[in-house]
């Protein structure tokens, strides 16, 4: 470890004279780094309070500002002319907002800058302490090591941990500023496209920074929750679980706990003599979700059907019905946290995860109905139809796929008709007549269409189709469907090969807006790592471009002054779906504006339309 000599000593702002000096230097800064020390992550985003603030206006000073002086920095923090740097802007912005301070002006988030610079070899190393060591060899202490079991509110001058706390709290801001400048210099040197002037720095200011603003506002507003509805669903699920457990015990002829892996394994593999389809790392027969689904839906084992039902009801109860209630904050809303750092470019959601709420067709208990508008308002829910297929059509230029999309056909039926060698009109007649062959082929076309961007193989396709068709589909049969799909859309196969070859040659692929996905493991000697990287070479340009399109639409809606004047605000972004809250009297007008932005995210339109159909509803479940 090298001896650090270029970091200035912390300056504790504890007098009016020091306060005036700190404010003046911060007010004249071109890049002001800020960081907050708070009560801790155990407090919700609306409740956590700033105890101290670290501020770094230039490389020669780092201030540690106690709580009683933080509000004096309001003119600086709210100045639209000073660029603010944070490492995880949204976290600090929420805590400052709790203190009555709104961060204004451009935001340089070094967390996102590091992700944009290298999402590949630095995956899961974007934290400030990792960045500090990796780039500058400056070690940073862990919060727990400094605070220990102490109440951070009691760590003051004279406390045994004070000097370390003072250093810790001001070093974050100093390193954040240094890191932002370092990364901007790196990003400036990475052109997006050959022969063009735009760099990754431009991409950050054009898309990533505005998205951070959108995500912060969505998190801040939250989504209203009908807690009575969730409590009703909880009671219903508990009764269902009791009934299912009773039915299972009657069927087995003795007491059995459906949640017990040991008891379920004994029933299936010892008493019933079922041949396991997979084993655990220790070699025992597996009772995981996929195995139980297979025994229930493919083998038709009644005991497994009940076990699967029981466990699904238990997950709904614990994760959603009761689980969501734990996250309702004092304003009656859930304030999830969105992360923009997934390698695909998609968002992830946590505390709670709202991206895995059961889809409408599986939401038999109506959990989505608990997501409601504010009083006097409606929800406007709008998503894209088959967005990833449309991006594949745009990328590949496949004439048959583009023709079907532009004609407004049901793409799964259209694909199935091509795979069967029949006209679309005749296939639709077969479908309306509930012809089993048409049903099977459409399901196969749908499974391949969704799986193709993940480079799905015959074995995985066979497993997926076996579950969806409730019968065993052989690998050979699945391979015929896969080949039929690629024969129907020959340019899709060519595009997949192009993505893979480009990635192997260049070491990366790009999304429609130019964001890079580096794939260093394409050179791995491990077959599993190399295969995964090849799949990412195909998946990222499609899924990542879908993320770009949603991101563009979200930013346009959030920045539209007239839409804001109507009181229409973003509340959730779930994959390809945007959820808005809007006063009832303005909902129809707002929905038209939202539709236009979503269907026209770019200045130059794509070769395929991007239809979006906003619906005005009283709860999220009604949207489907």
Sum this structure up briefly.
The protein is an alpha+beta fold and 624 residues long.
Q: Count the DSSP helices.
A: 24
Helical content band: 40-55%
Q: Radius of gyration, Cα only, in angstroms?
A: 27 Å
Globally, the shape reads: globular
Poorly predicted runs of 5 or more residues: none
Mean pLDDT comes to 93
Note the beta-strand portion. 5-15%
Widest β-sheet, arrangement of strands: 1-4-3-2-5-6
Number of DSSP strands? 17
Structural class: alpha+beta
First-residue to last-residue Cα separation: 58 Å
Main pleated-sheet profile: 6 strands, mixed
Describe the overall structure.
Helix 19 packs across helix 20 and helix 20 crosses helix 21. The longest helix is centred in the C-terminal third of the chain and has 33 residues, at about 525-560. The model has no long low-confidence stretch (mean pLDDT about 95). The protein has a six-stranded mixed sheet with strand order 1-4-3-2-5-6. It is α+β, with helices and mostly antiparallel strands. It has 24 helices and 17 strands.
List the helices and strands and how they pair.
Layout: E1 10-12, H1 16-27, E2 31-38, E3 50-56, E4 62-66, H2 67-70, H3 74-77, E5 83-86, H4 89-98, E6 107-109, H5 110-117, H6 128-136, H7 143-147, H8 162-187, H9 200-221, E7 223-225, H10 227-252, H11 261-271, H12 289-298, H13 302-325, E8 333-334, E9 337-339, E10 348-350, E11 371-372, E12 377-383, H14 387-396, H15 399-406, H16 411-420, H17 424-432, H18 436-451, H19 458-469, H20 475-488, H21 490-506, E13 508-510, E14 516-518, H22 527-559, H23 561-565, E15 569-574, E16 577-583, H24 587-599, E17 615-617
Parallel strand pairs: 1-4, 2-5, 5-6
Antiparallel strand pairs: 2-3, 3-4, 7-8, 7-11, 9-10, 12-16, 12-17, 13-14, 15-16
Helix pairs in contact: 4-9, 5-8, 6-8, 9-22, 10-13, 12-13, 12-19, 14-21, 14-22, 16-17, 16-18, 16-20, 17-18, 18-19, 18-20, 19-20, 20-21, 21-22, 22-24
